[in-house]
């Protein structure tokens, strides 16, 4: 595991996250406004960053819906991938889902994103559905779900 700390995603991290967002999600990057909106909904959102030597190297967010938790985003900078940070960020979100009393956690992932699918499968998620042509370019979304410990 790379040395990094998982901390609350604060407003001052947004500017540093934007270049990563554009690099990792070039087809549909979130804007600063979108991140601000997410961070502002403090009662239903839980966002964290992975910090290494003071720099943001990853980020992730969870939405606490009435009947389920939902992974809103999950990202690790290219230079830091494959070292367990994605797993650490996901573990943090799942702990929060448990803390909030959720019984299940869902997410959507591109059908062609095998790295992310493996991360989710390793962590107990199973494919439960497909949204046809959900992403730009007509790429399908897999809906994945896992029971959240309560
Ligand atoms: C998906 C994503 C978040 C995963 O982050 P990550 O930090 O690379 O994830 P991990 O390091 O925990 O796991 C990835 C791989 O590294 C391996 N790994 C983890 N720790 C490791 C270590 N210490 N040494 C060697 N390999 C390791 C894992 O086994 C896994 O391998 P696998 O894919 O062959 O099974 C990252 O690839 C990413 O940001 N991708 C672009 C954005 C994206 O697709 N986000 C998901 C949207 S749904």
Describe this structure in words.
The chain has 150 residues and is of the alpha+beta class. The chain has one domain: Aminopeptidase. The protein is 29% helix and 37% strand. A seven-stranded mixed sheet has the order 1-2-3-4-5-7-6, sandwiched between helices. The protein binds coenzyme A.
Q: In terms of topology, how is this protein built?
A:
Layout: E1 5-8, H1 14-24, H2 32-40, E2 45-52, E3 55-64, E4 69-76, H3 85-99, E5 104-110, H4 114-122, E6 126-135, E7 139-147
Number of strands: 7
| Helix vs. strand class | alpha+beta
Shape: globular
Major beta sheet summary: 7 strands, mixed
Mean pLDDT: 96
Low-confidence stretches: none
Number of structural domains = 1
Q: How many helical stretches?
A: 4
Task: Fill in the keyword field for this structure.
150 residues, alpha+beta, Aminopeptidase, 7-stranded mixed sheet, 4 helices, 7 strands, globular, binds coenzyme A
